[in-house]
Amino acid sequence: MTHAMRFHETGGPEVLVWEEVDVGQPGPGEARVRHTAIGLNYVDTYLRSGAYPASLPSGLGTEAAGVVEAVGPGVTDVKVGDRVAYSGGPQGAYSEERVMPADRLVVLPDGISDQQATAMMLKGMTAQYLIRQTYKVKEGDTILFHAAAGGVGLIACQWAKSLGATIIGTVGSDKKAELAKAHGCDHTIVYTREDFVERVREITDGSMVPVVYDSVGKDTFAASLDCLAPRGLMVLFGQSSGAVEPLNLGILAQKGSLYVTRPTLGTYAAKRADLLAMAQDLFDVVLSGTVKIEVNQTYPLREAAKAHQDLQARKTTGSTILTV
């Protein structure tokens, strides 16, 4: 029998349980994938804790890499034996095997390992839409990226640097500041002891920035608006510190005709053609060496609860994967 990490009630990491599951055969438009590596992402903690709704009992995880073991009727996007990766689709990546919609699977090029793919699909595709679509970072831009030493941050900083941008990144410690700088961040702000609005003002000589990328949410959102230049764009793509309070839109006028967006990878990659184009853009910068994908922590799938504890305690940096 195949095993998976699941939860029957919401709560802390301790609600995750290792149990047998019946995978079954793929139906029309589906493929069965044997996992080799599974991505750990902060959004997984939102589902497990109940911050995001889930139908219980539930699997967990939406990112993994592996090998196609079987395909259902009508599947032409992948074939048996293909190395594939995915980010998105139904919950359940924390498993040894699973059945997936075949149109969510991306065939991996030879130069990218399963572990690399798992470490970069959600984070790298998120970085892609953030800096290549939501706000197209260009040469000469100065941008502010919160959690610059996180999984998305390390990829985004490298990529934005290659586009000619100057990156200001907030981090939680001196160790994380060093890590961010090693991945393209020009200026780091340790938010635990520095006022990041004042530091942004100093760094930009009062001009402020055209875009702020924020996955922290409640603790940083209001002050982030003060970092924006007139007509700047606030990109809120996560809420690791909690949900942002309801916003009086009049504040956007008062602070300089600002824009706010709450994008998701699910929307940007909803169409298969867009999914493949985004993945190819990501693969190109990784294969060229422009963006280096590093796995900083690895846990056995059975120890997913420990991985969640460390992630929420901010003991991890960059990408973390679960191995089967």
Automatic annotation (TrEMBL):
Residues 11-322 form the Enoyl reductase (ER) domain. InterPro entries: ADH-like_C, ADH-like_N, ER, GroES-like_sf, NAD(P)-bd_dom_sf, QOR-like, Quin_OxRdtase/zeta-crystal_CS. It comes from the Bacteria. Its EC number is 1.6.5.5. The keyword Methyltransferase does not apply. GO terms for molecular function: mRNA 3'-UTR AU-rich region binding; NADPH binding; quinone reductase (NADPH) activity; zinc ion binding. The keyword NADP applies. Pfam families: ADH_N, ADH_zinc_N. GO terms for cellular component: cytosol. Keywords: NADP, Oxidoreductase. PANTHER family: QUINONE OXIDOREDUCTASE PIG3-RELATED, QUINONE OXIDOREDUCTASE-RELATED. NCBIfam families: PRK10754.1. This is NADPH:quinone reductase.
